[in-house]
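Input record, target 12 of the design panel.
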C-alpha cells in the first residue's frame, strides 16, 4: 500500500480523472474531513445557502455540458437544497450531490447533525441515492454515481458519506470507467414516425428543452425547414431549442390542456421532440388533443414517455433522432409556409410611471448584445419576454425546469462561471421578479466575489403578480400574502457586494444597463414596474 493513501486521496484522484475539480458547496463539520488539505488544482465555489449551491451547479453543468459536483452539510444542507434539486431532476442535469454523515460510531445513537435515513431524504428527486456500506467503497460509489448521473436520462444523484470514511487507509487507484451519455432511437420505429410525418398534411413541430440540451438546435432548424412545418415552443421550457425569430416559429404552444388543444387544432399531426406531453400548468379543462390530431413524441426519458397521456412515443436521444429523421422524411415544399409569430410590440403612447414590462423589455431589446444569455425568472412576463427578447442562439436561455422559484439568481452565477470555464465571454442577463429575487438572494454574494459579468434586472411590481392572475383564473378572491411592499432590493444587493441602482424611467434604465454591461462585476438594476396580467 502506498504510504498515506486514503479513501480521500484515492477519491480526489478519481475526481480529477473524471474532470470533477470544481466543488459547489456550503461546508459543515461533517464535510471537513472531505475538504481537508483541499488540493490546489481543485476549486471550491462557496454559496451561502444550499438552494443557491444547487442552482449554481445546475446551470454550470448545463453550460459546460459536463456533470457538476456538489457538497452539502448533512441533512440540514440537503433540506435547504431540495427545492432546487427538483429543478435539476426535471432539467436532466447530471449533478453528483454529496453530503457528510456523522461519524459511523455515533450514528446508532442519533447524534446532533446526523442524517437519518440519509438515502431516503432526497428521493424522489435523485436517480440514485447511496451511503457506502464500507469506507473503502467510497471511490467506487463516486464512479457509480457519475455513471448514473450522465446516462440518459441524465440527472442528479446523491451520496451520503460518513465523516470518518475519508481518513481510512485505501490503496488506489480507483477504477475509472466510461459509459454512454446518449442512446440512439430504434430504427424501425423511427422509420414509422418518419412515414407518418411525411404523410401529414399539416404537421406541427414542438421542440422542447431536451433538444437544445442534446445539441440539436441546428438539426431542429434543418428539420423544420425541410418539412416546411410550423414550430411551437414546448410549454414552460427551461431551455429554448429553436430560434424564436425564425419565420417558421409560431410562438409558445400554451400551458393548459385547453390552450394547447386549441393551438393544435387544424394540425393532423403534432411532432413533439424533447419535451413532455405536456408540461401543463394552469388547470383549464379541454380535450388532450383536438379531434383529428395525432401525436408522436421523441424523448430520451422513459418516464417522460410513459407519463404522456396521449400519442405514441419513441425513446432516443433527440439530436440523433432529428438528424436521422432528416434523412427519412420527404420534403414538405408543397406545404404552405405558416404565418410567423405575431409580434405587435405595442408600447403605451406616453411613457408609463411606473414602467410597464413591455417598456422595460423594449429597452433591453435595444441595448442587450446579440450574444447575451438570458436567465428568466419573471413569472408574470414570460409572454412579453418572448415577444421582445426572442432567443436566437443555442444555449442562451435558461429557466427553472420545475416551476420552483429561487433558481434564477444563482443559476445566472452558474452560467457565468461555466462560460468563464469554457472561455466564452458574453453578458448574462437575469430577468427576475421581485418576489423571485428573494429565495436565493445570497447568490449575489458569490456573483460579486467572482466578479461575474451578470446584469440582473429585477422587476419590482411589489407583488406576486402571477398569483393574482391565478386568483382570478381559480376564482379565489381574498388570498392573503400576495403583496410585497417595502423591499429594498438595491440595498440588499449592495450588502452582498454588487453594484446596484434603482431606476424609474426608460432613460435611466438604458443608462444603467449600458454602464452595467461595461462593468467588471455584477450589477443589480431594480426597475419599478406595473403589474402585468399574466397570460395563463
Ligand atoms: C419555491 C416556490 N415558492 C413559491 C412559489 C409560488 N409562486 C409562483 S410564482 C410566485 C410569485 C412570483 O413573484 P415575482 O417573482 O414577483 O413575479 P411576478 O409574478 O410579480 O412577475 C410564487 C410565490 C413557487 N413557484 N416556488
Ligand atoms: Mg413581482
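The sequence produced for target 12 reads:
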Amino acid at each position: 500500500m502506498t504510504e498515506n493513501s486514503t479513501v480521500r486521496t484515492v477519491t480526489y484522484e478519481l475526481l480529477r480523472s473524471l474532470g470533477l475539480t470544481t466543488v459547489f458547496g456550503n461546508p459543515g463539520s461533517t464535510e471537513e474531513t472531505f475538504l481537508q488539505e483541499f488540493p490546489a488544482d481543485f476549486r471550491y465555489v462557496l454559496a451561502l445557502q444550499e438552494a443557491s449551491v444547487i442552482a449554481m451547479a445546475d446551470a454550470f453543468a448545463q453550460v459546460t455540458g459536463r456533470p457538476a459536483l456538489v457538497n452539502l452539510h448533512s441533512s440540514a444542507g440537503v433540506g435547504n437544497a431540495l427545492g432546487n434539486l427538483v429543478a435539476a431532476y426535471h432539467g436532466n442535469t447530471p449533478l453528483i450531490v454529496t453530503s457528510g454523515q456523522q461519524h459511523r460510531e455515533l450514528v446508532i445513537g442519533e447524534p446532533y447533525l446526523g442524517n437519518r435515513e440519509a438515502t431516503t431524504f432526497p428521493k424522489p428527486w435523485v436517480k440514485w441515492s447511496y451511503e457506502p456500506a464500507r469506507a473503502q467503497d467510497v471511490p467506487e460509489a463516486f464512479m457509480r454515481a457519475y455513471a448514473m448521473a450522465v446516462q440518459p436520462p441524465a440527472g442528479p444523484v446523491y451520496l451520503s458519506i460518513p465523516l470518518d470514511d475519508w481518513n481510512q487507509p485505501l490503496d488506489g487507484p480507483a477504477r475509472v470507467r466510461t459509459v454512454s451519455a446518449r442512446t440512439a432511437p430504434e430504427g424501425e420505429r423511427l422509420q414509422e414516425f418518419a412515414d407518418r410525418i411525411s404523410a401529414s398534411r399539416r404537421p406541427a413541430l414542438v421542440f422542447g428543452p431536451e433538444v437544445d440540451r442534446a445539441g440539436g438546435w441546428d438539426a431542429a432548424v434543418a428539420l423544420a425547414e425541410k418539412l416546411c412545418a410550423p414550430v411551437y415552443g414546448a410549454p414552460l421550457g427551461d431551455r429554448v431549442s429553436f430560434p424564436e425569430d425564425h419565420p417558421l416559429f409560431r410562438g409558445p404552444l400554451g400551458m393548459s390542456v385547453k390552450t394547447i388543444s386549441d393551438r393544435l387544432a387544424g394540425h393532423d399531426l403534432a411532432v413533439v421532440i424533447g419535451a413532455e406531453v405536456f408540461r401543463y400548468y394552469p388547470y383549464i379543462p379541454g380535450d388532450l388533443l383536438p379531434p383529428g390530431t395525432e401525436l408522436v413524441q421523441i424523448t430520451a426519458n422513459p418516464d417522460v414517455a410513459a407519463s404522456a397521456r396521449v400519442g405514441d412515443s419513441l425513446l432516443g436521444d433527440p439530436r440523433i433522432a432529428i438528424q436521422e429523421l432528416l434523412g427519412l422524411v420527404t420534403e414538405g415544399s408543397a406545404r404552405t409556409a405558416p404565418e410567423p409569430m405575431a409580434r405587435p410590440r405595442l408600447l403605451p403612447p406616453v411613457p408609463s410611471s411606473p414602467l410597464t414590462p413591455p417598456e422595460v423589455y423594449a429597452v433591453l431589446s435595444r441595448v442587450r448584445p446579440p450574444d447575451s444569455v438570458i436567465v428568466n425568472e419573471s413569472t408574470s412576463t414570460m409572454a412579453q419576454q418572448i415577444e421582445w427578447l426572442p432567443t436566437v442562439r443555442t444555449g442562451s436561455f435558461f429557466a427553472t425546469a420545475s416551476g420552483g422559484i429561487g433558481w434564477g439568481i444563482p443559476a445566472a452565477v452558474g452560467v457565468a462561471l461555466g462560460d468563464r470555464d469554457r472561455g466564452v465571454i458574453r453578458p448574462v442577463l437575469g430577468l427576475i421578479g421581485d418576489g423571485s429575487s428573494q429565495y436565493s438572494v445570497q447568490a449575489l454574494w458569490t456573483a460579486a466575489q467572482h466578479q461575474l459579468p451578470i446584469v440582473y434586472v429585477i422587476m419590482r411590481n411589489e407583488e406576486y403578480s402571477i398569483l393574482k392572475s391565478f386568483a382570478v383564473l381559480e376564482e379565489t378572491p381574498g388570498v392573503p400574502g400576495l403583496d410585497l411592499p417595502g423591499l429594498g432590493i438595491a440595498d440588499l444587493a449592495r450588502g452582498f457586494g454588487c453594484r446596484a441602482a434603482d431606476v424609474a424611467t426608460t432613460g435611466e434604465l438604458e443608462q444603467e444597463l449600458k454602464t452595467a454591461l461595461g462593468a467588471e462585476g455584477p450589477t443589480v438594476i431594480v426597475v419599478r414596474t406595473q403589474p402585468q396580467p399574466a397570460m395563463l
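The chain has a mean pLDDT of 97.
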